[in-house]
Amino acid sequence: MDWIYLSPHLDDVVLSCGGLVWEQARQSERVEIWTICAGDPPPIPLSSFAISLQERWQTEQHAPAQRRAEDMLACQRLGVIPRYFSLSDCIYRRSPENGESLYNSELELFGEIHPAEISLVSLLIQELAQAIPRGATLVSPLTVGGHVDHRLVRAAAEGLGLPVWYYADYPYVQWLRTIPADLVSGMKPFEFPVMDAGLAAWVESVAAYTSQISSFWFSLEDMEEEIRNYCLKNGGVQLWQYTE
Most buried of 17, 39, 216, 240 (most Cβ within 10 A)? Predict the structure, then answer.
């Protein structure tokens, strides 16, 4: 079976279900992680908000290239195939009308999709429809946490008219301690076990994202403990699917 996991950013799938994709790849299934917002920013000065994030990541002006390199290493450690699309992270995107930055704060990252980007969903549907091989199994984020890029990806996945599985967005699901009922309405959860070796590979792959560790954890040891506890709590990784 071919599995295609849609990752809004260069880490979301690995963070959310790295142990599962390692288990699937180990069973000789073809697993690919398609990162939608993996492109470079436009060749104009960055917004102050984007600069502040890159300073925290210690990536300076080459953040997307560095993050793609981190993701390649993470995917290599899991034995899965990465694919990168050209849309940039929302922190870099600007209005096509006046060139102003569309998302300028942490609050706006988790707010509504900017009206200027509504057409992006249709464009993503077209791009994905041309790329997805027949018979592949598609896995989308549930959008726990409500990040605008996660919402775009889920909307595009559902617009394809194909059966879709869903994963809970980590670490947001860990922080909220629950999944909002509206995100899984009409769905049923399925548990996929992750063995000790899969858990170790999961932790090792997350560690590849050196620029992102400080965004979510105090240290690598803290990350390992939280990923381990999350995996044990769920009996591995849970995926959701509509029952009708």
Answer: 17
